[in-house]
Specification:
Elements (H helix, E strand, L loop, with lengths): L2 H30 L5 H25 L16 H24 L2 H11 L7 H33 L5 H14 L5 H22 L3 H17 L2 H9 L1
Helix pairs in contact: 1-2, 1-5, 2-5, 3-8, 5-6, 5-8, 6-7, 7-8
Amino acid sequence: MSVLTHLVFIYVCVVMPWVGRIKYARLKTDLEAGHNEARLRFYWRTLLQQAALTLAVIAIWGFGIASRSALGLVLPQEWSMTTSLVGTVLLGMVASVFIFRRAGTGQLKRLMKMAGALIPVTSLERRVFSGLAVGAGISEELAFRGFLLFYLNHYFPQLNYLLLGLISSLIFGICHIYQGWRGILLTALVGFSFFFIYTATGSLVAPVLVHAAIDLRLLLILTPARLHSLQEA
C-alpha cells in the first residue's frame, strides 16, 4: 500500500471535515458582510477540490495500487437491479420535489439553518451549483464508497459488511460537520443508502447518479420564489 493511499485517507477523514467547516464559516462571514460574490468563489474553489480528490483516487488505480473493481470503477454487475434501484430512488425524489414545493416549510427552514449559505440565489450561482452537485456525486462517491471501503477492507479485513457500511457512512457524515449534528446524522444515513446501492450493484455508477440527483434536487425545491417565501415566513 503506497503513501498516496494513506495521504488520501488522512485527507478524507481528518483534513476534509475541518477544511469544510472553516470554509463554510468564512463563507457565512463574507455573506453577512455583504460580499455576495463569496458564494461563487466558494463554489469554484470546491469544484477544484473535487477535481483534485477525483484525480487522487483515479491515480491510486493508475499506479496499480488498487484494481478498477476494488474502487468501483466498473460497470454494474446486473443492469436490471441497477436500473430498478436508480429508478425507484429517482421516483421518490420526484415525489419529494412536489411535496416540498407545496409544503415542508419547517424542514426547509431547518435546511436553511444548517447550510443556507450554500444555497444558490442568482441564475449564475444556480448554474455553477449544478456543476458542483455533479462534481460532488463523482468525487464523494469515489472517495467515500470506492476508495474508503477499499482502504478499510484492506487494513481491517475483520470488519464485516455492516461495520464497513457504518464506519464509512459515519466518516461521510462527519465531513458535513459544518451542518451541525443534524447534518452529520442525515448525511450519514444518506451515505449508508449509497453504500447499500454500491455493494448491491458492485459499481459506483448508480450511487454517483443518485448522489448527483439528490443534490440537483435542491434547485427544483429551493427556487428563487421559494427562497423568497422562506425568508418572509
